[in-house]
């Protein structure tokens, strides 16, 4: 593992997890870059304002390679924010769970709104998060039409890497996590995170109930994942730093 903080105006931190597998900690949410040198697969895409950081990370991790595929954990604006621009510029295949596609297409919206946040705005951590989310384009309309469904449990080979999607509904109806068996790693999206601006706790944890579409289901998913990953798997979360087994 090596970590670098390249000259990057958006301060994304890139960690090489295994050959061709890079974890990128963006300003407020994370993404993963998979590459075999010729092609790149991106897992999640940050907020709309993260486009320069996303493109910088692609160029740093895979100079000259073509963005062929974007995999989506779920359709929240901090995970699909740059997708409309990436789709326009690079025309990658976009893959997500069938259950999540209406959320990504904005035919339905399963996302926290201002009404949910308002009662908490007196807390400085929530106020800071809200300000960042708004500045980063969190309220901007994001809509992506071309999305293909993946079949959970069926391994994909993307940019030379085996990726196994797994359906983990709770945070959203079609939330996916992705196993990377060759790296002994799990991309956990928002089903399991390691830090969030609204809390002071660090390390593997669940997001609070207000962030979830179905909080009891999200708590069940988190309990399963916590048990499964505990000191065995590298965790690459949607928020917070990567977590390596002791
Ligand atoms: Zn998120």
TrEMBL record:
Q: Where is the Metallo-beta-lactamase domain?
A: 28-239
Swiss-Prot/TrEMBL keywords: Hydrolase
> Which InterPro entries does this one have?
Metallo-B-lactamas, NDM-1-like, RibonucZ/Hydroxyglut_hydro
- Keyword field contains Ligase: no
What protein name is recorded for this chain? MBL fold metallo-hydrolase
Q: Which Pfam families match?
A: Lactamase_B (PF00753)
Q: Which SMART domains match?
A: Lactamase_B
Species this chain originates from: Mycetocola lacteus
Q: Which GO terms describe its molecular function?
A: hydrolase activity
């Amino acid at each position: 593992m090596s970590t670098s903080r390249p000259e990057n105006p958006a301060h994304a931190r890139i960690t090489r997890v295994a050959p061709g597998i890079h974890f990128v900690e963006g300003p407020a949410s994370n993404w993963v870059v998979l590459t075999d040198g010729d092609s790149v697969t991106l897992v999640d895409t940050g907020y709309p304002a993260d486009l320069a950081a996303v493109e910088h990370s692609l160029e740093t991790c895979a100079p000259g390679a073509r963005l062929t595929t974007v995999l989506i954990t779920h359709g929240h604006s901090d995970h699909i924010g740059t997708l409309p621009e990436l789709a326009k510029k690079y025309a990658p295949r976009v893959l997500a769970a069938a259950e999540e596609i209406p959320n990504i297409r904005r035919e339905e919206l399963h996302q926290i709104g201002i009404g949910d946040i308002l009662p908490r705005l007196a807390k400085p951590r929530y106020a800071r998060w809200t300000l960042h989310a708004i500045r980063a384009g969190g309220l901007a309309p994001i809509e992506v039409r071309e999305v293909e469904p993946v079949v959970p449990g069926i391994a994909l080979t993307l940019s030379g890497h085996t990726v196994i999607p797994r359906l983990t509904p709770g945070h959203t109806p079609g939330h996916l996590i992705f196993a990377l068996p060759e790296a002994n790693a799990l991309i956990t999206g928002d089903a399991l995170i390691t830090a969030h601006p609204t809390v002071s706790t660090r390390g593997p944890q669940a997001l609070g109930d207000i962030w979830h579409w179905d909080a009891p289901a999200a708590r069940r998913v988190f309990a399963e994942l916590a048990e499964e990953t505990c000191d065995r798997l590298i965790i690459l979360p949607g928020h917070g730093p990567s977590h390596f087994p002791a």
